[in-house]
């Protein structure tokens, strides 16, 4: 194993120091370290963060390898500064058995670019009718701890209660896609002024808020852990604030796109802006940003949702919802939060690693800690070129935008997955 001596790096925004990486861990830190056998990387001006952890990634394998594979999605993740991603269950077949989650986990190990932690489905086939084999997935080699029907809401309250009860035994968590389905039938975009102007059927904020309100009460009643996927409205923030004040074991995520883009984008009818939940209003964006800074929203998660060209470059009404996210998330966070490195490390690495229970991730670089880290150049600016992305899909809403920050290197257990901003393999 090669040793690496990273010179003059700011660890999570602190004063410049050296980091020696050896045998998969951070061996030493301090100014003026010497290690004749180590490869030296001059990191002057760079910031070291604990490797980013994404709690919400769609890798599309098995089933839609034309849109993404575990390997291509892992490469996109590493290039985005990630060392671990949680793979959503809405594959084909659905990840609702030990067999499928083990397959995804094994493909992740083979790619070896990030740790791929499969998420299991809550219900068989994501159909919302009966519980999947949660225990078998938890006991499998993939050691599933997060369960989600993401893409669909677990709408049946009795089923949601039973799922929360079931995972309590092994400290699992149910990650809910909060969307009351009866309130969003035929919805094309956020319900508001813009949808009225465009004559498109709206997806009202209350469809999200009603499910979150119900589920925090269920989680409180059961005493179990609940996670809310892609929170998108100001009202949801208020429900979460209330629940957290009561001590409910609820955590929540926001996506980069909901922190940056608004429903005005739908006026272009460019399906790249179609996403579920939809882009909301400027007031919602402001509330989400404040909630993230305050901690009412715990983490940034990408909801990286690659789609093949034929599913995205068509009429708005027929386009699949979703956007790429892994390769641009840190830049968006930097744009939205500014260089608040400790906050970025907390919301994009430490907290998601804690929620997912991922050992060895989400730890600031320090002696003895597994060397899962990323080096960021905060002064760099980059123009997003879809053709240059490692993802197999091209549905980024940031095409040709100039964004701050660039991932220079990523290390997974001491081995570089990215160097000089390029994937190593
Ligand atoms: Zn979702």
UniProtKB/TrEMBL annotation:
It catalyses: (S)-dihydroorotate + H2O = N-carbamoyl-L-aspartate + H(+). GO terms for cellular component: cytoplasm. Keywords: Hydrolase, Metal-binding, Pyrimidine biosynthesis, Zinc. Residues 47-234 form the Dihydroorotase catalytic domain. Zn(2+) 2 binds at residues 150, 177, 230. The active site is at residue 303. Binds 2 Zn(2+) ions per subunit. CDD domains: DHOase_IIa. Belongs to the metallo-dependent hydrolases superfamily. DHOase family. Class I DHOase subfamily. NCBIfam families: PRK09357.1-1, pyrC_multi. Catalyzes the reversible cyclization of carbamoyl aspartate to dihydroorotate. This is Dihydroorotase. The gene is pyrC.
């Amino acid at each position: 194993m090669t040793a690496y001596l990273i010179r003059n790096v700011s660890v999570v925004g602190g004063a410049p120091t050296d980091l020696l990486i050896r045998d998969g861990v951070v061996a030493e830190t301090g100014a003026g370290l010497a290690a004749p056998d180590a490869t030296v990387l001059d990191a002057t001006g760079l910031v070291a963060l604990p490797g980013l952890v994404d709690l919400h990634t769609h890798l599309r394998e098995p089933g839609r390898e034309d849109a993404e594979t575990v390997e291509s999605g892992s490469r996109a993740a590493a290039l985005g500064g990630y060392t671990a991603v949680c793979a959503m269950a809405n594959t084909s077949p659905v990840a609702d058995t030990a067999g499928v989650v083990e397959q995804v986990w094994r493909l992740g190990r083979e790619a070896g670019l990030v740790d791929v932690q499969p998420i299991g489905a809550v219900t068989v086939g994501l159909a919302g009718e009966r519980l999947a084999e949660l225990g078998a997935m938890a006991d499998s080699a993939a050691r599933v701890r997060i369960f989600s029907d993401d893409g669909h809401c677990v709408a049946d309250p009795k089923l949601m209660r039973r799922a929360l009860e079931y995972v309590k035994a092994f400290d699992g968590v149910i990650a809910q896609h909060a969307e009351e389905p009866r309130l969003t039938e035929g919805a094309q975009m956020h319900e508001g002024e813009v949808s009225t102007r465009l004559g498109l059927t709206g997806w009202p904020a209350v469809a999200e808020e009603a499910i979150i309100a119900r589920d925090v009460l269920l989680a409180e009643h059961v005493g179990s852990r609940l996670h809310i996927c892609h929170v998108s409205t100001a009202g949801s923030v208020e429900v979460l604030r209330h629940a957290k004040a009561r001590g409910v074991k609820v955590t929540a995520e926001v996506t980069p796109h909901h922190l940056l883009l608004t429903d005005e984008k739908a006026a272009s009818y460019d399906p790249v802006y179609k996403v579920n939940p939809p882009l909301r209003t400027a007031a919602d964006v402001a509330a989400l940003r404040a909630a993230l800074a305050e901690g009412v929203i715990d983490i940034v998660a990408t909801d990286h949702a690659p789609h093949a060209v034929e599913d995205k470059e068509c009429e708005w009404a027929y386009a699949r919802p979703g956007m790429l996210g892994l390769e641009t998330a840190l830049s968006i966070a930097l744009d939205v939060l500014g260089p608040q490195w400790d906050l970025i490390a907390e919301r994009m690495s430490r907290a998601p690693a804690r929620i997912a229970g991922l050992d060895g991730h989400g730890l600031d670089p320090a002696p003895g800690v597994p060397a899962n880290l990323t080096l960021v150049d905060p002064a760099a600016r980059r123009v997003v070129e879809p053709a240059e992305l490692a993802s197999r899909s091209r549905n980024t809403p940031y095409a040709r935008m100039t964004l701050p920050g660039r991932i220079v290197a990523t290390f997974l257990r001491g081995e570089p997955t990215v160097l000089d901003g390029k994937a190593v393999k």
